[in-house]
Amino acid sequence: MGFGGISIWQLLIILVIIVLLFGTKRLRGIGSDLGSAIKGFRNSVKDPEETAEPVTPVAQQQLKADAKEATPASTETTKTPEQR
User: Fold this and answer.
1) What pLDDT is stored for residue 2 in this prediction?
2) Where is this region: Disordered (predicted)?
């Protein structure tokens, strides 16, 4: 006896019917699409710290410079016309 009262022969007959209905090329495409979807799901579930690339010192300096440049511009927009 097989899985829940289904014998191996019944499973093989179902497999043959599925292959005849969809074809091997289409089943292969479905399998690869399913595999890539599972892989993408696993990557999205991982901790962002594990998947994040380390920041180099040059990139850190550039981020700091960008932040310094952005700060005065943002305070200028909050001034009223009388303050300018």
Assistant:
1) 56
2) 43-84
